[in-house]
Amino acid sequence: MRPENYQARSHPPSHEYELFIGPNHPGIEGNYAFKLRLHGDRVIEGKADAGYLHRGFEKLMEGRLWIQNIALVPRICVPDPVPMEVSYSLAVEELCGLEVPERAQWLRVLQLELSRIAAHLFTFGGHASTTGMYTNMFWGVADRDRILDLFEELSGGRVYHIFNIPGGVRRDVPPGFLGRVAATMDYLESRLPDYDNLFFRNQVLVDRAKGVGVLDQETALELGVTGPNLRATGLAFDVRRDDPYLVYDQLEFDIPTESAGDAYARTLVRRAELVQSIRIVRQVIERLPEIPGPVRAPIPNPLAWKVPAGEAYTRVESSKGELAWYVVSDGGEKPYRVHVRGASMMHAVQVLEHLARGARIEDVAQIMFTLDACPPEVDR
Questions:
Q1: How far apart are CA 155 and CA 175, in angstroms?
Q2: Number of helices and strands (H, E) in the chain?
Q3: Domain residues of the chain, as ranges?
Q4: What is the 3-state secondary structure (H, E, C) of 307-339?
Q5: Which fold, 67-341?
Q6: Are 140 and 121 in contact (CB under 8 A)?
Q7: pLDDT in tens, 205-232
């Protein structure tokens, strides 16, 4: 029975029951809870229940120096932390009128795309586990570790890199690093046929994901959907192309789309995006040696840095969707106001609740993983 044909109140309320999924459950993407009201195996209503993770990032940032917040922002989205560092730095740079050196901009793009690849691999593993394909989960985590090895070599941190700062990046790449990045891209490309056979073309996934969690384009726009979830409805919108930042306007890449808007379409979009990210990384590896110069602009003493009064709004394209920052300065050593507009607030609350209505209980976890939300973004 399709969700649109399911009448939620076609039975007495006494036949309903409640089931909580999370906050610590393999079917939930992170420390998050989803409260279900069911009749049999069919969901009548789902209610998001956040607040089980580290919270209050925006308020915490108002009590810290501008530079100290660099160590805080990656925790807002653990699987894809680089966009948080970059977008916050872009906002501070706009307030200060800082011009980021060109080499630093290319290095930021390199990190952003590596982080996108790692995040998608992680998501594929989580999605596979919801359909019983645990081998793909192990593969995704293991191959993601190869990207984390590169981040550890570059920044010293595997998960929280704290590498981007207002004005640029902390340091240049170590000797031989670009060659190791290229080798990792070769490896991941060689693995794609295996992933296709095991997961993306697996008939189990096709049967489980097609027609599940269908989101049409009009509803997606009304609910504020962005990123791969929006592109899976057929709309080719990507901040990297439509509102370019850093050096994305100098790069060649496609914007993958699908039209079905279901769980399978969202998965295929991310699979295609992984290929495009590898393509972008290769272009950065080719261009970076031709761009000498510093990797950061001079900034005042970070411990006594008074950012000029004003407000800034910046946005980037993260693996989860559009990520935006609204930052206000009153001319002091700390932000006066910070607001994060992360894609997960819409995807993990409004969209998840919308798509869960009428779904079967076994598809709820799959729907959530194909929406690819970051619970800390909700708890921000």
A1: 13
A2: 14, 8
A3: 67-341
A4: CCCEEEEEEEEECCEEEEEEEEECCCCCCCEEE
A5: Cytochrome-c3 Hydrogenase; chain B (1.10.645)
A6: yes
A7: 999 999 999 999 999 999 999 999 999 9
Give the chain's mean pLDDT.
Answer: 91
How far are the Cα atoms of 32, 46, 204 from residue 365, in angstroms, in the given order? Answer: 12, 12, 16
Give the per-residue pLDDT at 27.
Answer: 64
How far apart are the C-alpha atoms of 49 and 36, rounded to whole Å?
10
- The residues, any chain, with a CB within 8 Å of residue 166's CB and separated by 6 or more, are 66, 67, 89, 92, 93, 96, 98, 299
CA 271 to chain centre: 14
pLDDT digits (tens, 9 = 90+) for 42-71: 999 999 888 777 778 899 999 999 999 999
- Label residue 283 by pLDDT band (50, 70, 90): very high
Count of beta carbons in the 10 Å neighbourhood of residue 153: 15
Unique residue bearing structure tokens 């592109």: 231
Q: Please, are residues 123 and 78 in contact by the beta-carbon 8 Å criterion? A: no
Residue 148's Cβ-count burial label (10 Å; 0-12, 13-18, 19+) is: middle
If pLDDT is split at 50, 70 and 90, which confidence band does 164 have? very high
